């Protein structure tokens, strides 16, 4: 190679699941017990940005996350870097000496951690995508490598509507994400995130789901009897742009996920009183409007993600502002997003 330095910069967006991933069958490879399905949001709204510099003169590998140095030996980072390099070496996709050079990684999110939104999905998707650019693995399947960083990250590798199939192989090679439909298929679908203030420290997703797998009875029922049908109904709802069906399945799956969290022992309590009020208000709103105009879904925290059609955004926003005026007592701010398509 002529040059002694190479650099790439990439961005990757957040995704919000409508059929939740909860539970692993293999902790170190991050293999899930059920399929999941999500919508990837626009990078203009919520995303991670990662710059990687490889330099023949660097003496150490360095990882800086949101301005703070991280331990490069972190198991998840190591798994991603090693796997990408192994594939590049096997395929001979880049010069051999490039694989020897140390790398400096700098990553940041364009949304505040205080917003309470999970950044591991966009963060690891961005890290793995950037590494794939650096080592010229552009046309290769990389969602299984992003998965080794954080399960939900594999879904952020693709835009639009994305399914993560759990796979059946022990090595996880078939536990990958794929696009169900591009964002352009349903451009008027919007997302509104209500950031619910909450000071309580929640149990992290990784340990919460591990506890659910061991202690919850309901999780077995969900995996066997509910998720396969839901994936089927959700895929059909997306294909038909059937908002009412999409909303019903989204809300039922969120509720069942949180029921499993409560069936976990000791329980994982992620939703708070404001979250439950939002649920009640939305059902009441849909009932009085005479049709389902909004769907809620909650991840491992109290924030509500609302799915709705563009024509109803104004009406729903005025409803949200009416029930949660910004009085600092019981406030819900919002972030708006749309599904995104990207290369
Ligand atoms: C999801 N969540 O499908 C579900 C819904 C949270 C609730 O994916 O251990 O941070 O890194 O694989 O990916 C959060 O799980 O967990 C998650 P690890 P991750 O979006």
From TrEMBL:
Organism the protein comes from: Clunio marinus
Task of the protein: Catalyzes the ATP dependent decarboxylation of (R)-5-diphosphomevalonate to form isopentenyl diphosphate (IPP). Functions in the mevalonate (MVA) pathway leading to isopentenyl diphosphate (IPP), a key precursor for the biosynthesis of isoprenoids and sterol synthesis.
Q: Which UniProt keywords apply?
A: ATP-binding, Cholesterol biosynthesis, Cholesterol metabolism, Lipid biosynthesis, Lipid metabolism, Lyase, Nucleotide-binding, Steroid biosynthesis, Steroid metabolism, Sterol biosynthesis, Sterol metabolism
What GO annotations for molecular function exist for this entry?
ATP binding; diphosphomevalonate decarboxylase activity
Its lineage opens with: Eukaryota, Metazoa, Ecdysozoa, Arthropoda, Hexapoda
According to the entry, every stretch annotated as the Diphosphomevalonate decarboxylase-like N-terminal domain falls at 12-177
Key word ATP-binding present: yes
- What family does the entry list? Belongs to the diphosphomevalonate decarboxylase family.
| Pfam families, A to Z | MDD_C, MVD-like_N
Tell me the route in metabolism or biology where this protein functions: Steroid biosynthesis; cholesterol biosynthesis
- Residues of the Mvd1 C-terminal domain: 191-343
- Which reactions are catalysed by this chain? (R)-5-diphosphomevalonate + ATP = isopentenyl diphosphate + ADP + phosphate + CO2
UniProt-recorded name of the protein: Diphosphomevalonate decarboxylase
Kindly list the biological process annotations in GO that this record carries: cholesterol biosynthetic process; isopentenyl diphosphate biosynthetic process, mevalonate pathway
Annotated EC: 4.1.1.33
Q: Which Gene Ontology CC terms are recorded?
A: cytosol
**Do the record's keywords include Lipid biosynthesis?**
yes
């Amino acid at each position: 190679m002529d040059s002694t330095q190479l650099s790439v910069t990439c961005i990757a967006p957040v995704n919000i699941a409508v059929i939740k991933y909860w539970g692993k069958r293999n902790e170190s490879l991050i293999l899930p017990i059920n399929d999941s399905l999500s919508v990837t949001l626009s990078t203009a709204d919520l995303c991670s940005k990662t710059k990687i510099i490889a330099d023949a003169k660097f003496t150490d590998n360095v990882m800086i996350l949101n301005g703070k140095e991280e331990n490069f030996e972190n198991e998840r980072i190591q798994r991603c870097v090693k796997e990408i390099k192994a594939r590049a070496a096997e395929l001979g996709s880049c010069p051999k000496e490039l694989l020897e050079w140390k790398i400096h990684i700098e990553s940041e999110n364009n949304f505040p951690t205080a917003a309470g939104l999970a950044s591991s999905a966009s963060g690891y998707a961005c890290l793995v995508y950037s590494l794939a650019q650096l080592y010229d693995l552009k046309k290769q399947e990389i969602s299984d490598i992003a998965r080794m960083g954080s399960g939900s990250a594999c879904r952020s590798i693709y835009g639009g509507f994305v399914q993560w199939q759990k796979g059946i192989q022990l090595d996880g090679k078939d536990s990958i994400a794929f696009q169900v439909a591009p964002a352009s298929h349903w451009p008027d679908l919007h997302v509104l995130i209500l950031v619910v203030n909450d000071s309580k420290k929640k149990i992290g997703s990784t340990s919460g789901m591990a506890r659910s797998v061991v202690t919850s009875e309901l999780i077995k029922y969900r995996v066997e009897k509910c998720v396969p049908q839901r994936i089927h109904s959700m895929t059909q709802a997306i294909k038909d742009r059937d908002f009412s069906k999409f909303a019903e399945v989204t809300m039922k799956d969120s509720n069942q996920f949180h029921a499993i969290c409560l069936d976990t022992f000791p329980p994982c309590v992620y939703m708070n009183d404001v979250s439950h009020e939002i649920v009640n208000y939305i059902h009441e709103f849909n009932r009085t409007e005479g049709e389902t105009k909004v769907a809620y879904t909650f991840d491992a925290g109290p924030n509500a993600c609302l799915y709705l059609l563009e024509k109803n955004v104004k009406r729903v926003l005025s409803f949200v502002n009416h029930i949660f005026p910004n009085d600092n007592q019981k406030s819900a701010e919002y972030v708006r997003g749309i599904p995104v398509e990207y290369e």
